[in-house]
Specification:
Blueprint lengths: L17 H10 L13 E7 L7 H11 L4 E4 L1 H6 L1 H9 L3 E4 L12 H19 L5 E2 L8 H9 L3 E2 L17 H12 L5 E5 L14 H11 L3 E12 L5 E6 L2
Parallel strand pairs: 1-2, 1-6, 1-7, 2-3, 4-5
Antiparallel strand pairs: 7-8
Helix pairs in contact: 2-8, 5-6, 7-8
């Protein structure tokens, strides 16, 4: 995702129940066949990939732990590493659009904003046979034009994340314990959690990546299960007003 801005740190108290999340997703025609969950759901999301350095590792851990996640892919990376994109899809994860080259949309012309979305959708569709329904803007920064545009082509977004406590994220290289603390502090029923498998996080020490398996175990010990992000008909205050909810895969 790159360096996230402090504007993401607003306070809110809403708690989204899994049943309500499912209903909202179905209103928008969720691409997933979602079933009612017995436990509150957390949605792990990974931005900026795929990368040869870390995406396969993340997929290995998720497979070992039986977790489905949502990957917001950068279009130029998807085009460069199509085998990783195919593996993400084949293993049952959801794929979203994270722009072509991680540009900051408020700095772009309207033509360039459309191109960032369309070029990434085309690259992912060419590899997987499916066009993403979810959009997460780089840095979480959308524009009124880009939001209207993605809606006009049947997409939902921008998909934000829960940033209530504001601990350092994985892209800030806080180490394995730091990333785990960040995720556990932000955990809540229906929370979308921002993580990365490309760009800035690749410069973090390799030891940091032990957080993933440990954090999955810690969340399960707290009674959570894991879901994927699906489109929502309404803004979700738990996750910074995202038009997306966590549903059972």
């Amino acid at each position: 995702m790159g360096r996230e801005t402090s504007t993401m740190k607003s306070k809110f108290a809403a708690v989204v129940l899994a049943a309500a999340s499912l209903a909202a997703a179905l209103l928008m025609g969720s691409p997933m066949a979602a079933n009612a969950a017995d436990k509150p759901l957390i949605g792990l999301t990974f931005d900026d990939g795929p990368s040869v350095q870390r995406t396969a590792f993340v997929l290995d851990v998720l497979k070992q732990k039986g977790v489905k996640a949502t990957f917001f892919l950068q279009g130029n990376h998807a085009q460069q590493y199509p085998d990783l994109v195919r593996r993400i899809k084949a293993e049952g994860h959801v794929i979203g659009n994270h722009s072509w080259d991680h540009a900051n949309f408020p700095e772009l012309s309207q033509t360039r904003q459309r191109q960032e979305v369309d070029r990434t959708n085309a690259a992912i569709s060419a590899i997987t046979g499916a066009t993403p329904k979810l959009m997460r803007f780089p840095f979480g920064n959308s524009t009124s034009y880009s939001l209207n545009y993605i809606r006009s082509i049947g997409m939902s977004g921008g998909i934000q994340w829960r940033w209530h406590v504001g601990q350092p994220g994985d892209f800030e290289c806080p180490g394995a314990a730091g990333v785990q603390k960040y995720v556990l502090d932000e955990a809540a029923p229906g929370a979308i959690i921002l993580l990365h498998d490309g760009n800035d996080v690749l410069s973090c020490p390799a030891s940091q990546w032990s957080y993933l398996a440990r954090t999955i175990d810690a969340l399960r010990a707290r009674g959570y299960d894991f879901g994927v992000v699906a489109p929502s008909a309404t803004a979700n205050p738990l996750n910074e007003g995202s038009y997306g909810v966590v549903v059972a895969p």
